[in-house]
Design a protein that fits this description.
heterodimer, A: alpha/beta, Alpha-Beta Plaits, Fumarate Reductase Iron-sulfur Protein, Chain B, domain 2, FAD/NAD(P)-binding domain, five-stranded parallel beta sheet, 18 helices, 22 strands, B: alpha/beta, eight-stranded mixed beta sheet, 11 helices, metal-binding (chain A), iron-sulfur cluster binding (chain A)
Chain lengths: 540, 338
């Protein structure tokens, strides 16, 4: 034994001492569902694509985004971004400008001419999609990605549906719409225009289609009998918007009454305002009850649209229209007052909602209707096997994002149906709530506001009202994301462990616990900014 | 703030690492190849602030000296939990001194290296760190420490301050804060806990020696701590860093609250985070979100007697006054300078 005085053992490392045995609770890495993702009607992985955008890899961000929604440039303009209302950052300072970053990515993709990959293998199945609106084109995209042959049949002269005929140019420039539609055609999706399907079953038989997705939208304007043939002419809002889009001259006159309080009423009023008319919106309830979005009402007022609330149109009159004043009681019920006034107008545009043209389903067995729309099951299938439906023609909120979500959901279910299975959606993670965040770690950063077009130009031109972000502020905005519930590799757990019991696996690979030494102190859980670590009891 | 924080990178430099930063802007602790000077398997309690602070500091010192470092360690928790014979957690040349002479042992090592270099026996510029808890530093080792400062020996002394002799059963030290309960302070009576007006704040005493560099830090702000250790290594002569390290056992706090309490100590102003050169304060870490001292005191059982059925308002007000004095004295609320 050759050791110093009083030394009998060789020096050893404390690694022999497995302190993990002290533990009563263990930390585990989890992924939670960020509230934005949970809110998105199109099921986008918002936190996921912001993660790529944060590092400036816009193409990766765009590719990740478009696995769920092929239309970021459109979404970045017309989506009502309820995700931002759910954003946890809203409780800290202001919600992340998700919509503006989405638009930036969409515009960047158009600028850089990024294209979708064609499917790796063809399934040999052929799916008919009826209607080239947001729902139909979304379904076509997802079906094509899954390897199916897709033919889209559209009754109108151009693709886009309500995105073209319901949303004015000043909100959605047509070159943006065309670019995102063309990209889907480039994947090998066949589009047949100017063709109205008389009977879907006959068409399927003739074309030997294996399944069909109906997404014809709701294009028939609801009417109400107010005219006795005298006085101003009466139009419906959807026909007016479609006619103006197709360049028709519509004899609307200068003073135009728009009847209704929804987004379509605002769209018509703002469109005719740009053509030099003086629109007045007649709505029966108070302004705060208008179904139109508050920001659109505000923008319309800025542009010189007049809104007359608590009024109903009784009938037309040789000079104009007769309006009855309405009173709302404390419970919100409306009562006619019997007080009338005459408003001099040249025409009336009815914006009272739209009905669905169900012509293509005539004679199809097992189709169930509900209040003028088609009933579908949880898998988006109608009562008739192999016939799926989505968008405005099924019971739903009618907006572009919901329609795009329907297209995705239907495509997945059609794909499963064609394979003789049923689509099983992966189980949702628990919601990443604000309380689980450690907000100390996030930098203070105010929201970036998008520029607005000057009001004078908004009154006379169809230039886009809302501008976009440029590269620097889009990057800034993306980096405001808190990455709720999903590890973004900040190294906090790796750093704060007093026992070196966190193993860093390298960029993009996240971390792992070394349970041989983890004592279960919970520091990593407490100091994880985004709440992606859980403590679970040990079985002792 | 002693270092230039990176702004607008989601978490800036608040977190340990940040995948969006350039490698040279990242912390030592974020590195996959960090030294892990104090390795796994040590016997410190769950959530030990001292184990964490020691790894932070010594890893940073190793990084700054290109791994040419020797550490002398006073008796105390840090020595007991890291090196029970024949095991050790240290991955750095390390010597255990007596309780009171770590500064003197380090001085001797520094002198030996100097001689070896003069004789040409080594070319390596090996640097020396001495470390200990507040007991070994502010009480028992204070004479040796003051001598090391006075002679301006080329040693960085790091004190891990958890406010008491924790490993022997939570006895009072001269770094125990006022009103804190320990095993050897008044348990009952009109003013239970450590009396006001006693104890000492060694960073101020170190500054009075006008040594090249003095700094305080907490385990809640890693970037600040690492910056100070690296900066200390750019000086020759005596340097002193005083790191606040919460002790879940002695403070009566949940093990997962160690970093939160350090943060609260700094944010309430009870523990001033600053640095000084040659006796002059050169900067302080500013308070980001001003908070009343109660936020810091209430989660700790050593202050539980202040928050009973009859809260000790007067004592809380006196502690708040100490915080307010720190805020004035060290300019902790200067938002512009942040």
């Amino acid at each position: 034994m050759n050791k110093p005085f009083a030394i009998t053992l060789d020096p050893g490392s404390s690694l022999a001492n497995h302190t993990g045995s002290w533990r009563t609770e263990r930390p585990v890495y989890v992924d939670r569902l960020p509230p934005c993702n949970n809110q998105c009607p199109a099921g986008e992985d918002i936190q996921g694509w912001l993660f790529h955008a944060e590092s400036g890899n816009y193409e990766a961000a765009w590719r990740h985004l478009t696995t769920h929604n092929p239309f970021p440039a459109i979404m970045g303009r017309v989506c009502y971004h309820t995700c931002e209302g759910a954003c946890n950052r809203g409780k800290l300072d202001a919600a992340v400008g998700i919509n503006s970053v989405e638009r930036f990515l969409g515009d960047e993709a158009i600028k850089q001419k990024w294209q979708f990959d064609r499917p790796a293998a063809e399934s040999g199945k052929h799916v008919l999609v009826i209607g080239a609106g947001p729902s139909g084109m979304s379904a076509a995209y997802h079906l094509r990605r899954l390897g199916h042959q897709v033919t889209v049949v559209e009754a109108g002269p151009l693709v886009g549906g309500m995105m073209r005929y319901g949303i004015p140019k000043y909100r959605l420039p047509r070159e943006v719409l065309d670019a995102e539609m063309q990209r889907i055609v480039n994947m090998g999706v066949r589009v047949v225009l100017d063709t109205k399907i008389e009977n879907v079953l006959d068409t399927m038989k003739e074309g030997s289609y294996d399944a069909a997705f109906l997404a014809v939208g709701a294009h028939i304007g609801k009417r109400t009998a107010i005219s006795d043939g005298e006085g101003p002419r009466v139009f419906d809002a959807i026909s007016v918007l479609r006619g103006l889009e197709n360049g028709e001259k519509i004899p609307l006159g200068r003073r135009i009454a728009v009847y209704g309080g929804g987004n379509t009423a605002i769209d018509v009023a703002r469109t005719v305002r740009r053509l030099g008319a003086e629109p007045i919106i007649i709505y029966r309830r108070t302004q705060d009850k208008m179904p139109a979005h508050a920001f659109e009402i505000e923008e319309a007022l800025q542009e010189g649209v007049t809104i007359k609330c608590l009024s109903t149109i009784k009938q037309t009159d040789p000079k104009g229209i007769v309006i009855e004043k309405v009173q709302a009681d404390s419970r919100g019920s409306l009562h006619p007052t019997g007080e009338y006034e005459t408003l001099e107008v040249d025409s009336v545009v009815l914006a009272l909602g739209q009905n669905v043209d169900l012509g293509a389903l005539k004679g199809v067995p097992d189709i169930e209707l509900n209040d003028g729309v088609v009933k579908v099951d949880a898998n988006m299938m109608t009562g008739h096997a192999g016939l799926f439906a989505g968008g405005d023609m099924v019971p739903t909120d009618r907006n572009v994002t919901v329609a795009v979500g329907h297209g995705k959901k239907a495509a997945r279910n059609i794909d499963a149906w064609l394979r003789g299975t049923t689509y099983a959606a992966p189980e949702k993670h628990q919601i990443a709530t604000f309380e689980r965040l450690n907000t100390w770690y996030y930098s203070d950063a105010p929201k970036t506001v998008r520029p607005m077009l000057d009001v004078i130009r908004r009154q006379s031109t169809f230039d886009e009202v809302q501008g976009g972000l440029d590269e620097t502020n889009a990057l800034f905005e993306a980096r405001r994301c808190l990455s709720c519930g999903n590890c973004f590799e900040c190294d906090n757990c790796y750093g704060v462990c007093p026992d070196n019991a966190v193993i860093k696996l390298g960029p993009g690979k996240r971390f792992q616990f070394n349970y041989d030494y983890c004592k279960g102190c919970g520091l990593c859980v407490a100091e994880c900014p985004c709440g992606a670590i859980n403590m679970v009891p040990e079985n002792i | 703030m002693s270092f230039q924080p990176v702004k607008f990178y989601q978490t800036g430099t608040f977190t340990v690492g940040n995948r969006l930063l350039e490698p040279d802007q990242r912390s030592v602790q974020a590195n996959m190849e960090r030294t892990n000077s104090l390795n796994s398997g040590h016997r410190a309690c769950q959530g030990c602030g001292e184990a964490l602070g020691a790894r932070y500091a010594i890893d940073a010192a190793m990084h700054a000296t290109n791994n040419q470092l020797i550490a002398a360690n006073a008796t105390g928790c840090l020595e007991v939990f890291s090196t029970p014979y024949p095991e050790t957690s240290w991955q750095v040349p390390w010597i255990h001194s007596l309780f009171g002479n770590a500064a003197a042992v380090a001085t001797g090592i520094a002198a030996a290296i100097k001689v070896k270099r003069l004789k040409g026996e080594t070319k390596e510029d090996v640097r020396v760190v001495a470390q200990g808890g507040d007991g070994g530093t502010t009480d028992i080792g204070f004479g040796c420490l003051s001598g090391m400062f006075e002679r301006n020996d080329d040693v960085l002394y790091i004190c891990y301050d958890n406010g008491g002799y924790m490993n022997t059963g939570v006895q009072r030290s001269s770094a125990t804060p006022p009103a804190a309960r320990t095993a050897t302070t008044m348990p009952v009576g009109a003013e239970p806990g450590n009396p006001f007006g006693q104890g000492k704040f060694v960073p101020s005493i170190a500054m009075a020696h006008e040594i090249p560099y003095v700094a305080t830090a907490t385990v809640a702000d890693l970037r600040d701590l690492e910056h100070k250790v690296k900066k200390a290594m750019t000086f020759r002569g005596a340097r002193y860093i005083h790191i606040l390290v919460p002790c879940p056992l002695g403070w009566g706090s949940p093990s997962g609250d160690t970093i939160k309490l350090s943060r609260l100590a700094k944010e309430t102003g009870l523990f001033p985070v600053f640095e000084a050169q040659y006796g002059e304060i050169t900067g302080s870490a500013k308070i980001r979100e001003p908070l009343p001292v109660e936020e810091y005191l209430r989660p700790q059982k050593r202050y539980a007697h202040l928050f009973g059925k009859k809260p000790a308002y007067e004592t809380i007000v006196r502690l708040q006054a100490l915080a307010d004095r720190n805020i004035r004295r060290y300019s902790l609320l200067d938002k512009e300078a942040n």
